[in-house]
Amino acid sequence: MAGIDDLPPLRDVIAAHGLSARKSLGQNFLLDLNLTAKIARQAGDLTQSDVLEIGPGPGGLTRGLLASGARKVVAVEKDSRCIPALQQIAEAYPQRLTVLEGDALELDTAAHLQPPYRIAANLPYNVGTELLVRWLTPKDWPPPWSSLTLMFQKEVAQRIVATPGSKAYGRLAILSQWRTDARIVMDLPPGAFTPPPKVSSAVVHITALPAPRYPADPAVLSRVVAAAFNQRRKMLRASLRGLAPDIEDRLIAAGIKPTDRAEQIDLERFCALARSFA
Ligand code: SAM
């Protein structure tokens, strides 16, 4: 069977460029191109979109994205050892791959991408949650991206899609579900990666909603939710006391029992509570 492209197998790329995995950079590579093509397909029809990829490494997912027809991929990689391997992919897909060397937490990629673009990544675990929170909290909504297709540790993926009443339910679930649809679309065992990480992983596909599900000021909602879940075992009348002296009245007006705990409260009632501070 023909491969997804005419480039060498990823094991050869890694050997040729001396890409021994570095733990400090969260390097767990995907070497099976059938698998990276499958992940790329989860991102939807890419033919009309630019795609931002964080941490391409030796380029397995990059090749999957390009082979599935992405109009253009902008790949941000911190490890300079990977850049020549990525340049080889750029040559095989003329005009369609831009490689940027640098830290995704610092680099400004906006100038390279036409919105609404998609984001796809097998994220470095050490920066994954921070990047997600940034993407979910832009200055304006809708954001410049239309979808995020991201690999996380399974435990983080479960926190993104968690519903009230579960242990995983918290700030990340509310932040995600307030303005997006988020689903786990693939589970991957440690053995899918080289070297294998200690825990299982999952791919989450997140699509931006045109507007929030319920009205609320983002900064106020964020403050209320942070205070509620910082002391998640306490009753809300205690954990939120610092927000307002009449917090019990506000909770009742939002349909919340003051003796409830944060993990029992759904998104709609958190938004109602946030609006009481508007
Ligand atoms: N996408 C590749 C794959 O699936 O095989 C590599 C994934 S590996 C989990 C994470 C990648 O992110 C590594 O290549 C690592 O060098 C890169 N990386 C780590 N921290 C980064 C940062 N702050 N900015 C950009 N890339 C980073």
TrEMBL record:
The UniProt record lists the keyword S-adenosyl-L-methionine: yes
Top enzyme class: transferase
Pfam families: RrnaAD (PF00398)
Principal place of residence: cytoplasm
Source organism: Pelagovum pacificum
Secretion signal span: none
Gene Ontology MF terms: 16S rRNA (adenine(1518)-N(6)/adenine(1519)-N(6))-dimethyltransferase activity; RNA binding
Name of the protein this chain belongs to: Ribosomal RNA small subunit methyltransferase A
Physiological role: Specifically dimethylates two adjacent adenosines (A1518 and A1519) in the loop of a conserved hairpin near the 3'-end of 16S rRNA in the 30S particle. May play a critical role in biogenesis of 30S subunits.
